[in-house]
Amino acid sequence: MSDTSETFTLVITGAPYSSQAPQTALGFAKAAIDAGHSIDRIFLYGDGVHLASALCTPPSDETRWPQEWADFLEQHSIPGIACIASALRRGLVNDTEQKRYQLPAANLLHPFEIAGLGEWVEGRMTSTRTLYFHAGG
């Protein structure tokens, strides 16, 4: 990488299929990587946590945005973090939270993780830029 490369933390607050936020963020992330920059982490907040749901199943002729993101994160070894408070409010849980709340199943899509706002703060501290992708309206 050159001396002008930057490191980005991306915050996504819009849900797939009801906003363009995840799609726009993925386009940006791919372009940034192609330009020699790096992505420190993706942080999902508010309705953005729906991007980490393993149960999202659009019609067969539509893009599966959660899987597109999961594949991108794995390909580039980028952490994808869903805010725990936002996730729990919206019915998104990992194995740990499933057991803690005695729920019938976990539905967090691999490689996403659930963590607190400290991950957002750390991303802001370690990245040269933090970009927000919000739902319109």
TrEMBL record:
Asked whether the keyword Transferase is assigned, the reply is yes
Gene3D superfamilies the record matches: DsrEFH-like
Spell out the GO cellular component terms annotated for this protein, sorted alphabetically and separated by semicolons.
Answer: sulfurtransferase complex
- Pfam (any one): DsrE
One GO biological process term: tRNA wobble position uridine thiolation
Keyword terms of this UniProt record: Cytoplasm, Transferase
Give the chief site where it resides: cytoplasm
Q: Which subcellular locations apply to this protein?
A: Cytoplasm
Which Gene Ontology terms cover its molecular function?
sulfur carrier activity; sulfurtransferase activity
Whether Transferase counts among this entry's keywords is yes
Please state which protein family the record places this protein in: Belongs to the DsrE/TusD family.
Name the record gives this protein: Sulfurtransferase complex subunit TusD
Name the gene behind this protein: tusD
